[in-house]
Structure formats: structure tokens, C-alpha cells
Amino acid sequence: MSTCATASRDAAEPVAGTSATARTWLLVEQTGPWGTEALTESHLDPRIGRALEAAADNTGVRVALVRRPGRHADCHGAPARRAFLAHTAPSHSWIRTTSVADPEALLHLDFARLGAGEHGGLWDAYDGEPLVFVCTNGKRDRCCAVLGRPLASELADSGTEAWEVTHIGGHRFSPTLFVLPYGYAYGRASAPLVKEAVASARDGRILLDHCRGRSTWERPAQAADLAVRELTGEDRADAIDVVHSESVPPPDRDGDHADETTEGLRRKDTTAAAPMPPAAARHEEPAPTWVVTVTHSDGRSWLVTVQQRADGTSAPVSCGSPLGTPARMAVLSVRPLN
């Protein structure tokens, strides 16, 4: 039986601009099995799981459970569990770590402050190898278990600082993972690719191959960041930043923008643009469109026009779901501002 990952791969569905969004990650060790909604369907007290979800809501913090690769027997009565906090913003990335005897203590964290990137000296600074978190939540989608668990084990056996993690979105891109401290996610990953991504992160760089985007930003900004990196060849993690993103009216039937709100967008763009959908499709509901301002540490900047489309090959979003056309982020143009 075909899986969502096979269908997505066969359709050559692009992965750019599909990462989960999290300015800050809170990752809590929890052994044993995970359910579909892992924070409330695991051996973590569901009351605590619900409270963590509520505390993190609208703060920029995303909470997930992690465990070491291998057998998933629950270590009942373990004296402590590992916890990580990681902020992913450019030039302000950090990882803090501790051991907690009672996960209820995590409810006392200042989630709003952590989401803004302020740890205030909390816990211990993590100064080890880049961390890899591979999604293996098979209850959410079987592709994550079938493809993710062997990858996580292979990485751990080779000495990579790898963990399994609960749902991070994009089952159809399995094996999918993200690398800290910078928060770039990858899809359809292999062990050699991950090792290269880790080596890059160790040197303060990112790997563009199979990259889904930096979790710091919403998906249009993720796509814009990667588009500028592809254009310029810039791989230094902190050299590129997204400073503004706004929604604009989508292109009209002639391919021009109507009533743009960003200065200068009406000028002719000399950059190659993604082709417009077929004419029939353009009579449907207008596609959401954004203009994203991307800057470089050397002073350069670009306006990147990104459109959300659903005009690819039909494929299931996850295993067992009906065929559809998953939304993707299409970069229409990249225009230098100076």
C-alpha cells in the first residue's frame, strides 16, 4: 500500500517553506509510547500536558516530547528527565538544558519571555554537539515510525547527538527532523545528509539540500529565506534575517499585482518567477500572497514575493487521508532592494 511519503516523493512535492513554526522549543524527555496527541496521550500526566499546551499558546514556544532512540519501554520511577529550551532566531540562538524530577515544575516557566528569546540565565548553557530531533510519532502517521525510527537509531549509533521527537508536521516528508541551535528542518532525510547538516551547524552554517525552513518564521518567510540563500549561495546561519512579512493582494489574471501596499513592487522584476497556474485555476479563490523583506548582514536586502498554492499533483497529506493537493509555498520573485 502506498504511503503519504511515497506519494509525496513520487510527485516531487517541494519541501521549502514547510517547517513547523517555533521561535523557541521546549523539549521534554518522556519514555514509553506516544499517542496521536503525545502531550496528553503518553505516560506524561495528561493534566500536565494540557497545562503545558495552554501555557505555551501564542507565546512562540512549541512544546514537544523527546526520547532516546531505541526501545521505548517506559522507565517508571526515573529520578529525572532531560529538558531542553532552544531559541532559534538569527544572531540570538541558544540552547539551555536541565534535568527535572517533576515535569510539573515546567509550568512555572515564563513562556512569553522565553518565546521572545530571553532565558535570563535559566538552567545550564548547552555547549555540546548540534542536536538532531527526528520525528518518530507513528501514532500520528506511520511514515514517521517506519522511516524515522531507523534513521534516528542509525544516527545515534554513529555518535550523532540524536533524539526522537513527537509530531513536528509534514508526515509526507518523512524522515523529517530539525537541527538545533538554528532550528532548520529537513525532509526526506538520510543519515549522510543529516551528518552533513550537523557538520554545517557545528561551523555556524546551514545545509540547503532538502531543507524545509527555519522554524523561527512562518512558512512564507521560511520560503523567502531559502530562496535568497539559493540565489546568493549564502550558508552562514546568521547572515540572513527576515525583518518583515505582509500579506498583499495576489496577482491578477495578467500576472501583475493590484493595489500593492509595499513600495516599489510595481517595478518590473528581472528575476525568474514561478509560472502562473492554468487560467481555469485563476478563476478560483485568490491564492494568499505575501511580500517578505529579507536582509543580509552585509547590508543587502530583497523583497521576496511568496504565494501559497495548491496546484501540484494530487497526493494524500497523511497516510489514510483522501487525495488532495497539499498547499505549497511558491516563490514568485526575488528582487534586490539596493
Estimated radius of gyration: 20 Å
Give me the number of helical elements: 6
Which stretches are poorly predicted, pLDDT < 50 over at least 5 residues? 257-273
CA-CA gap between termini: 52 Å
**Arrangement of strands in the largest sheet:** 5-4-3-1-2-7-6-8-9-10
Instruction: Identify the quaternary structure here.
Output: single chain
Which whole number gives the mean pLDDT? 88
Largest sheet: 10 strands, mixed
Summarize the amount of helix as a percent range: 10-25%
* Range of strand content: 25-35%
Secondary-structure element order, as H and E? HEHEEEHEEHEEEHEHEEEEEE
DSSP summary, beta strand count? 16
Q: What is the overall silhouette?
A: globular
Describe this entry's structure for a reader.
The chain is an alpha+beta fold. It is 19% helix and 26% strand. The protein is built from 6 helices and 16 strands. The protein has helices at residues 4-10, 46-56, 111-115, 142-157, 191-202, 219-232, and strands spanning 24-29, 61-67, 81-87, 94-100, 124-125, 131-135, 162-165, 177-180, 184-186, 211-214, 240-248, 289-296, 301-309, 315-316, 323-324, 328-336. A 10-stranded mixed sheet has the order 5-4-3-1-2-7-6-8-9-10. Strands 11-12-13-16 form a 4-stranded antiparallel sheet, covered by helices on one side. Strands 14-15 form a two-stranded antiparallel ribbon. It is globular and about 60 Å long. The chain starts with a helix and ends with a strand. The model is unreliable at 257-273 (pLDDT under 50).
Describe the structure in brief:
The protein is of the alpha+beta class.
